[in-house]
Design brief:
The chain has about 325 residues and is of the alpha/beta class. The chain has one domain: TIM Barrel, CATH 3.20.20. About 35% of the residues lie in helices and about 10% in strands. Strands 1, 2, 3, 4, 5, 6 and 7 form a 7-stranded parallel sheet that branches. Helix 1 links the parallel strand 1 and strand 2 (about 55). Helix 1 (about 35-50) runs parallel beside helix 10. The termini are far apart.
């Protein structure tokens, strides 16, 4: 399978020699591929007409088969595994996951999982078993898994990060999302709680980095999108691009079409997905990015650099000038 080295001759997203790419490289990743068919349609449309270059597929998503079929239509789209330990039913047998799954055979939810992890009440073996099962489901479907991340960022916790790292190493997957916001966050009303939450999660950054180093895994230099989840408008996206720093940045987004299927789902992101779709599906941004020396890229086209260290998570976290 693709181990992250890719074709080093030409970047297929920008059609430039890879060794001549500008210093500002951007991966725009659409989370929740496979969640609903409307989410799948939006992700593919944002890839075809906009700036999205990558997506993360839910192995246990209700629209998994539809997502696989769509991904096969666009082989240049990066597809990673969006490991899900909090919502829906597991891929492996529920009886093998007694600390992750409730009596109903479904995951116990993000809050309960977080409390269990804080008490040390979830064996790493169960997390690793389910992570492997989800990755294997993508591989069996013909997906070349380019990277890993998790639904609702559960791999912030060292136990989940360690298990995910072992699974990644087993399958030769080199890239994992480093979910600590370390890009300038544009001023936006109502985001102060998310900012405080993001800052509080930085206590997990050092253990996370040690986990990556122990497994020779890599992460982009910068990560953006946590604070503005569900609020990513065209203007805020333009502000993010203006503040982009040299290096590789992953921008997380959640494009989707808010149809009846999404409305009936448990996610809090419904109409917000339409807003994010409109932002990342805007093809005119490509010209603006070229003017700023920003090049779109994919995980599979990045050189694997064992020991590569991402930027410290406290860099540039405060809001841009102007307040809320």
């Amino acid at each position: 399978m693709d181990k992250g080295r890719g074709d080093r001759r030409e970047d297929p997203v920008n059609h430039l020699p890879v060794d001549q790419l500008p210093v500002k490289q951007l991966i725009v990743n659409g989370d929740d591929f496979g969640y609903t068919r409307g989410v799948n349609r939006a992700i593919l449309a944002a890839y075809r007409s906009g700036i999205l270059t990558s997506t993360s597929l839910l192995a246990n998503g209700a629209a998994f088969a539809d997502a696989v079929e769509r991904a096969q239509q666009e082989p240049s789209l990066d597809v990673g595994c969006h490991v899900n330990l909090v919502e829906g039913a597991p891929v492996s047998q529920a009886s093998h996951l007694p600390h992750l799954v409730g009596a109903d055979g479904k995951f116990c939810g993000a809050v309960r999982l977080g409390l269990k992890l804080l008490r040390g009440a979830v064996p790493a073996k169960e997390i690793e078993r389910e992570s492997i099962a989800q990755i294997e489901k993508l591989l069996r479907a013909g997906i070349a898994v380019s990277h890993l991340d998790t639904h609702q960022h559960t791999h912030l916790h060292p136990r989940v990060a360690g298990a995910l790292g072992k699974a990644a190493q087993q399958f030769g997957i080199r890239w994992i999302r480093r979910p600590f916001e370390n890009c300038p966050v544009p001023a936006s009303p109502g985001t102060w709680l998310r900012k405080m939450a993001g800052l509080s999660l930085h206590c997990f950054a050092s253990p996370f980095d040690r986990c990556l180093a122990a497994r020779n895994l890599c992460a982009p230099d910068f990560f953006s999108g946590f604070v503005l989840t569900g609020r990513l408008t065209k203007q805020l996206l333009a502000d993010i691009l203006n503040a982009l720093q040299p290096g590789v940045t992953e921008l997380m987004c959640h494009p989707g079409h808010c149809d009846a299927e999404l409305q009936s789902s448990p996610t809090r992101l419904k109409r917000n997905r339409e807003t994010e779709f409109e932002a990342v599906a805007d093809g005119s941004l490509r010209d603006q990015m070229r003017e700023r020396g920003i090049v779109l890229t994919r995980f599979r086209d990045l050189p694997w650099e064992p020991g590569r260290r991402a930027q410290k998570p406290l860099v540039a976290v405060p809001a841009a000038a102007g307040g809320e």
